Amino acid sequence: MSIAILNFQKGNVSFYDNNWAFSEGTIYKIEQFDGKETLVLNGRAELKKSNFNNGIIEVDILANSKRSFAELSFRKQNGSFEEVYLRMHKSKQPDALQYTPIFNGESNWQLYSEHQAFIEFNELGWNHLRVVVSNTSADVFVNHKKVFTISQLKTDNVFGAVGLFSLFDNRFSNFKVTNSSNNIDSNNKVVERDSTIINQWQISEARLYNVDDSFTDDDFKNLKYFNGKTEVSGLLPISKYVKKTSFGKFENNSEDFVVAQVEVNSEIRQSKRFLFDYSDRVIVYLNGVEMYNGNNAFRSKGPQYMGHLNREANSLNLNLKQGKNILRCIVIERSNGWGIMGKFEDVEGIEGSWQPNYILRKNSI
């Protein structure tokens, strides 16, 4: 990845209040420490008038073995942005570093386990985090060593604010933004998609979930639906399309649900194997009959259980009738990543609404 000629800022960005907007509830102080101007932060800070597209964002973070998270964020627009953060208490662990998009105020780290990395942090002094952004990709460096490349940034934002976030106290210094002179590529490359993967779902608006809720066909039909396209992997990041009724409070969020559904038209009566995964929980129906009820939430299967997605983690044999079938998934979420992904083992003798050129049958979903 290359960066065009850079327009360098003169020195670091001061942490004094006239440069920064601090979110409600954020606790912070600015003080000299170790001969540097530093920001002690618990919450979110956004650099005012920063409309960043390409370039370099970097900061020093004081070594800290206590449980905490220290983050750089960029291209923030209306509650959606990209973030890279250090789990300060997880030095020498495979998830010490994480990239995740924030969609409508919600983190999605459970959906993107491929963007984690093993890092050994400095136990004393400072750790340097640097993100080099070029169009739809970014390189991430810790202590001047490249850790990984994010080949496809997820939010689709091409400009936006930069900032810092800390969950529990962390001390920051030497914050710097270097803007590049190159412009965002349109990146309209056509990617060939696997026809067995669910490439689009019809998804409903979000509703509060009650564990005592029961669902009928009439309940499903009375919801408003719109199309949500999946990523190439088949992942549908639901928060990208639907805002939760409560968000940004992690495990203190309420539980919400959406219905994600596809129409499957079968030439004959037959059985097809459906492979899928989800976060946090799902109830699967075929033609109104419950087929599966599962829980994949963070720590739901033990204190170290992450709830990461794997498209082939679960499978169902779907007994399809000839003609139109409706596959519905109630996807329930509290926090950390609202998603579903699925594919058919083969599509011989079936077609459906997951295919871009499919025309929904009359009186369909």
Topology:
Layout: E1 6-7, E2 20-22, E3 27-33, E4 36-47, E5 55-62, E6 69-77, E7 80-87, E8 93-103, E9 106-107, E10 116-119, E11 126-134, E12 137-142, E13 145-150, E14 161-180, E15 200-204, E16 207-208, H1 217-221, E17 225-229, E18 236-237, E19 256-266, E20 270-279, E21 281-286, E22 289-295, E23 314-320, E24 323-333, E25 339-344, E26 350-352
Antiparallel strand pairs: 1-14, 2-4, 3-4, 4-14, 5-11, 5-14, 6-7, 6-14, 7-8, 8-9, 8-10, 11-12, 12-13, 15-17, 15-19, 16-19, 18-25, 19-24, 19-26, 20-23, 20-25, 21-22, 21-24
User: What is Rg?
Assistant: 22 Å
User: What is the CATH T-level topology of the largest domain?
Assistant: Jelly Rolls
Helix-strand topology string? EEEEEEEEEEEEEEEEHEEEEEEEEEE
Q: What is the CATH level 1 assignment of the largest domain?
A: Mainly Beta
Beta-strand proportion: over 45%
As for the number of domains, it is 2
Morphology: elongated
By helix and strand content, what is the structural category?
A: mainly beta
Counting DSSP H or I runs of 4 or more residues, the number of helices is 1
Record field, number of beta strands:
26
Biggest sheet details: 14 strands, antiparallel
Helix coverage percent of residues?
A: under 10%
Protein name: 3-keto-disaccharide hydrolase domain-containing protein
Organism: Flaviramulus basaltis
